Amino acid sequence: MQLKFFSGLILIAILLTACGDNENQQDGKPGKLKVVTTTGMIADVLREVAGDSATVTEIMGPGVDPHVYKASQGDLKKLTGADMIFYNGLHLEGKMGEVLEKLARQKPVFAVAESVDTSRLLHAPGYQDAFDPHIWFDVSLWQAAMENAVNFLVGQDTANAEYYRKNWEAYRARMEDVHEETRRKVRQIPSSQRVLITAHDAFHYFGNAYNIEVRGLQGISTLSEYGVRDVQNLAEFITENKIKAVFVETSVSEKAINAVVKGARERGHIVKIGGSLYSDAMGPDDTAAGTYLGMVRTNVNTIVNSLK
């Protein structure tokens, strides 16, 4: 009798735990679509599109470097509990590739950057048959990629298709405005100073779209190594071209850029740190850079104000 009694208590405890977990997963909103993304840039656009018809959660917040990010147990719980998953792809989430591939066998998973026609992608220097994953820095290209993501969302949740498409059309118009605004602002920089120098090569799509030369100390991944010669070469370029400012990134250590600044100073040229740019992650929610379009505008203002 005692054995049956204790067995019954254990069963009740398991059932109560399961019910509690289910309530937590639903966030008190049964039936609402649960969308999980890797980066904030994807999540922000999908929130604008989904409105109150879905909950959208990202696992990589402000200041996170997706190149080196490893999923926590909490992240894995969010991913396995999601109805749909969106990630950047093109090896941006390098250490999560295997996890995402396994999840794609179980539920709808969409690689946003990999949906773009490869003719519009930039090849990654030093990586055979690989593309640069930082496509969000060209607003028009990110628009094309996210339109594909929205189409995927609509295909999975047809009941809200009209609502999603209406929201997307409104947001797409805002993206087009920011794209043209960025073009105008970058043209304010004198041509001799229209050079963007950062720690790693995250901004080549930005450079191509808005006509500004881009140079980075590291490759497209923050895992790339750089040496003394790389620092010296960049310092010499800055000195010879009298570049006024270089930039650090919020998700990357300042060590590399500080070494370049020191190298230029040793050559008799003072170059300032023009500010911090948001490269692989957006800013905190309560800041101007806490949204995708706000991040773009913040970066552009920082670059233009320091170089013009």
User: What percent of residues adopt helix (DSSP H or I)?
Assistant: 40-55%
Helix-strand makeup class:
alpha/beta
Shape: globular
Going by CATH, the architecture of the largest domain would be: 3-Layer(aba) Sandwich
Summed up, the domain count is: 2
Low-confidence stretches: 1-29
Distance N terminus to C terminus? 84 Å
CATH homology superfamily of the largest domain:
Nitrogenase molybdenum iron protein domain
**N-to-C order of helices and strands:** HEHEHEHEHHEHEHEHEH
- The oligomeric state of the chains shown is single chain
> Strand share of the residues?
5-15%
Largest sheet: 4 strands, parallel
Total helical elements: 10
Architecture overview:
This protein is an alpha/beta fold. The chain has 2 domains: 25-177, Nitrogenase molybdenum iron protein domain (Rossmann fold, 3-Layer(aba) Sandwich), CATH 3.40.50; 183-307, Nitrogenase molybdenum iron protein domain (Rossmann fold), CATH 3.40.50.1980. Helices cover 47% and strands 13% of the residues. The chain contains 10 helices and 8 strands. The strands form 3 sheets. Strands 2-1-3-4 form a 4-stranded parallel β-sheet, with helices on both faces. A two-stranded parallel sheet has the order 5-6. Helix 7 (204-210) links the parallel strand 5 and strand 6. It is globular.
